[in-house]
From TrEMBL:
Protein name, entry field: FAD-binding FR-type domain-containing protein
Organism: Candidozyma pseudohaemuli
Keywords of the record: Electron transport, FAD, Flavoprotein, Glycoprotein, Ion transport, Membrane, Oxidoreductase, Transmembrane, Transmembrane helix, Transport
Protein family: Belongs to the ferric reductase (FRE) family.
InterPro entries with a match to the protein in the record: FAD-bd_8, FAD-bd_FR_type, Fe3_Rdtase_TM_dom, Fe_red_NAD-bd_6, Ferric/Cupric_Reductase, FNR_nucleotide-bd
Length: 667
């Protein structure tokens, strides 16, 4: 009643006390009873110390209500406003941290979808500011020309990938925003009755703030790291970009959790209750969550991910589960379970959609072949209701024991087979499941088996280049499937729309000729399309594993008799005897294999040696009437070289130039 008297009796105040008595003491009070108590306090409340300085509250009895000291009540009120208000502010700032990202996503979605829905906007936004924005912000890496190439530090133990300047700018702003949110309105109230020392008060406020804000960023981690992230569709950003944000937000979140833990540890030491509090269940689970978060950051180092990816993946998932469970137990015991609900929701939806996608595609019997000793070709019958994305990727599950629970992303090409439409995956034999399948295929006749597979996808988006006057696709090595799928799709679109002034080019850079053996049938699809296809074989002298290519070429030569061959070194067959002589040459080791490749692919220009990327790109820019686009995927060093050359070309023309990196580096 003293507080009601001091601050003024209000309906809200009386309702609060009525609810308070009902909740904690199971006592219902009427408004009349509260009003009577209020009036009694006003009439009889006294301060015993004012009339008796020797009054002892433990031994002396009071027969009247204790009068509230006005100044002391104000001090307590302000102290609780600071203490409890910090919880409110922490929630607000946590919402603000999450809202920052959705603001960024909104801007990205408007910009990128604007160019997709209104392709003409690209040429409109091609002034000095727009060109500078692409040249210096959106395309280049943060501080070097190497964006996709692994950078090594401390002898390679600390390896890293340099984010783009755009990604770095978004992250830097976010980091400073969060830092400001962690310190704003953190203040000490002089003569605070709740905390005896300023250090104790500030430590508690920082502990609460960092813990709450850190917890509210966790749903972002789950969302950004998930495959079924609707934000990828909204922003048209690559999965690799979201993984970059996922890792850096995780590091920031763990840093905040670490500060949260250190602050509470210091408080327990100050209050002399360290051992008692450390034995509390909620503290133990908090330690579990923080420790798992720190271990995830360590075992997620690029060196460890690439050296032991399968092990990394299992440990990563196990630690993530214990992190979320630990967080749930920690804050549920503190009556904050609502902060974890979004985490379970995001994670649950991602897993559910993955399962739905798998069953939506089905588990067909796929043809699995070992080609050129280093590649596995997987031909999967495609259901009619499943729509592929040119340049997209899907996660492939092999029905090979426990390996089925693993999945790996591969780009694919949609082709027509006798049995119907199929999607074809081309998997480089590395470690893990591809190595096991490669060994299995090497020991069976024909190096071909049929195996049930699961396909989860498709994911990704094709590059928005349909309205550029010149489009050049550049693939390196195993980067050809996605690039080829995009070029094939655009080539068919150009042929269908009878576009005369749009040039489409496909450049494939190979190390060895034998790699053609697993893609030669696909290259034939370009024969009737307006796509200028060029292949560079940088080591034509390497004959290891060439027998399979010879077999494929011999089979092809038996099916047709060429009339003309267009290449850098043309070969013309005058009669059947000369053709038979060429076939005999093909079956011997030597440079003749190059001539037979040209025979099988008359619509493809084939060069021996490395291409001059600078000359190639600048030539395409010069030939473009109004705009040029370059889409690339392949070895990271090659992709970085193409990007750097395109960036330099932007400075030398007023034409619209765009660069699209389809290399997905997230492991």
């Amino acid at each position: 009643m003293g507080c009601l008297t001091f601050y003024g009796s209000t309906k809200l105040g009386t309702k609060y006390w009525n609810d308070y008595c009902q909740k904690w003491y199971d006592l219902s009070l009427t408004e009349d009873e509260l009003e009577e108590s209020y009036q009694y306090y006003q009439d009889h409340a006294t301060d015993p110390l004012a009339s008796n300085p020797d009054f002892n509250s433990t031994t002396d009895n009071m027969t009247t209500p204790l009068a509230i000291n006005g100044s002391q009540a104000l001090l307590y009120r302000e102290s609780y406003q600071v203490f409890l208000g910090n919880y409110d502010h922490s929630i607000y700032y946590g919402v603000g941290a999450v809202s920052y990202w959705f603001f960024i996503f909104l801007l990205a979605g408007v910009a990128n979808w604007g160019f997709v829905l209104l392709p003409g906007l690209k040429n409109f936004f091609n002034g000095r500011v727009s060109r500078a924005w692409r040249r210096y912000i959106t395309v280049p890496a943060l501080w070097s020309r190497k964006r996709q190439t692994q950078q090594d530090f401390l002898g390679g133990f600390l390896s890293y990938l340099v984010p783009s300047r755009m990604e770095s700018l978004i992250l830097i702003v976010f980091f400073w925003l969060v830092f400001a949110m962690l310190i704003v309105e953190i203040r000490y109230l002089p003569n605070d009755p709740l905390f005896t020392a300023k250090k104790e008060a500030i430590t508690r406020y920082v502990a609460d703030r960092t813990g709450i804000v850190a917890t509210m960023t966790v749903p972002l981690l789950i969302l950004f790291g998930g495959r079924n992230n609707i934000l990828q569709w909204l922003t048209r950003w690559s999965f690799a970009s979201f993984i970059t944000y996922h890792r850096w937000i995780a590091r920031l979140m763990v840093a905040m959790a670490f500060v949260h833990s250190i602050c509470f540890t210091a408080l327990y030491v100050m209050d002399g209750i360290y051992f008692e509090e450390m034995a509390e269940t909620y503290v133990v689970w908090g330690i579990v969550a923080t420790t798992c978060g720190a271990l995830i950051c360590f075992q997620g180092l690029l060196f460890l991910r690439r050296a032991y990816y399968e092990t990394f993946l299992v440990i990563h998932i196990v630690l993530a589960v214990f992190f979320v469970v630990g967080l749930w137990q920690h804050i549920s015991l503190l009556n904050y379970p609502q902060l974890v609900y979004p985490i379970f929701a995001v994670w649950g939806v991602d897993r559910l959609v993955r399962v739905i996608r798998l069953f939506w595609f089905g588990f067909p019997l796929a043809k699995v072949e070992l080609i050129a000793d280093d590649a596995v070709k997987v031909t999967v019958p495609k259901p009619n209701h499943w729509t592929s994305i040119p340049g997209g990727h899907a996660w492939l599950h092999f029905a090979l024991g426990w390996y089925f629970w693993q999945s790996h992303p591969f780009t694919f090409v949609e082709v027509e087979e006798k049995e119907g439409n199929c999607i074809v995956f081309y998997c480089k034999v590395k470690n893990g499941v591809t190595k096991k399948i490669g060994k299995k295929l090497a020991n069976v006749p024909g190096r071909t088996i049929f195996m049930r597979v699961g396909v989860e996808g498709p994911y990704g988006e094709k590059s928005p280049v349909s309205r550029h006057s010149s489009v050049t696709y550049i693939a390196g090595g195993n980067g050809i499937p996605g690039i080829f799928a995009e070029a094939l799709h655009l080539g068919r679109d150009v042929a269908k729309r009878s576009i005369q002034n749009q040039k489409v080019k496909l450049v494939w850079i190979l190390r060895e000729a034998k790699s053609l053996s697993w893609f030669i049938d696909e290259l034939k699809l370009m024969l009737s399309l307006p796509v200028e296809t060029t292949i560079y074989i940088t080591r034509p002298d390497m004959q290891d594993g060439i027998e399979e290519l010879q077999s494929a070429l011999h089979k092809d030569s038996m099916e047709k008799v060429p009339h003309s061959i267009s290449s850098s070194k043309s070969v013309h067959s005058a009669d059947k005897d000369e053709e038979k002589e060429l076939k005999v040459k093909v079956e011997t080791e030597g440079i003749e294999i190059m001539e037979h490749i040209r025979l099988a692919l008359p619509h493809v220009e084939i060069f021996e040696g490395r291409p001059d990327l600078s000359q190639l790109i600048h030539k395409d820019v010069e030939e473009a009437t109004s705009s040029a686009a370059f889409v690339t995927c392949g070895h990271p060093a090659m992709v970085d070289d193409v990007k750097y050359t395109v960036l330099r070309a932007m400075d030398k023309t007023e034409k619209r130039i765009d660069f699209y990196d389809q290399l997905q580096v997230w492991a």
